[in-house]
Amino acid sequence: MNQKIRCANRKCRRLFLPDPRVKNHRYCDREGCQRVRRNRWQRQKMKDDPRYRKDQQESQQCWTEQNRDYWQRYRDQHPAYTERNRLLQKDRDQRRRSDNLAKMDALNPKSHVKAGSYYLIPGTADLAKMDALSHKYLLIPIG
Ligand SMILES: [Zn+2]
């Protein structure tokens, strides 16, 4: 049974020699293929094994709680970081609110794109669906 088989990862399909010691060896040893294998295995396990599912949910919950605590502590211990974030957020908020487009134009005299409101519409958009697909973006030209 020393025959090469194709990697089960659809994006790979490389021929490789399965290791007889590995049960159901269907993926080659590339990092990406092993990741696909692990993900598939976990998804299947989540579907088939209620106990595993429960364990996963509990550990996820635990992690979230610990993490929340971690970030809270981090903010408490790094006031400068928190302040910087607050200022950056304030800056973003102000920029979003700002409708003084003429002022932005004056700040970017070399820009080839005129400051203003643009609709970004997917190139393949179906005209009938366009309203639902289009979102209004404020385009701020760089340099
Ligand atoms: Zn592969």
Explain what you see.
The chain is mainly α. Helix content is 53%, strand content 10%. The chain contains five helices and four strands, in the order ββααααβαβ. It has helices at residues 31-48, 50-77, 79-97, 101-107, 130-133; strands at 5-6, 15-16, 116-120, 135-139. The strands form two sheets. It has a two-stranded antiparallel sheet with strand order 1-2. A hairpin with an 8-residue loop joins β1 and β2 (15-16). It starts with a strand and ends with a strand.
Topology:
Layout: E1 5-6, E2 15-16, H1 31-48, H2 50-77, H3 79-97, H4 101-107, E3 116-120, H5 130-133, E4 135-139
Antiparallel strand pairs: 1-2, 3-4
Helix pairs in contact: 1-2
Bound molecules: zinc ion.
The site of zinc ion has 8 residues, from loops.
Please give the count of helices.
Answer: 5
Query: How many distinct domains?
Result: 3
Number of strands: 4
Radius of gyration: 26 Å
The residue fraction in helices comes out at 40-55%
Low-confidence stretches: none
Q: Which strand order spans the largest sheet, edge to edge or round the barrel?
A: 1-2
Beta-strand portion reads 5-15%
Which class best fits the helix and strand makeup? mainly alpha
Mean pLDDT: 80
Provide keyphrases for this structure:
flat, 5 helices, mainly alpha, 3 domains, binds zinc ion, 143 residues, two-stranded antiparallel ribbon
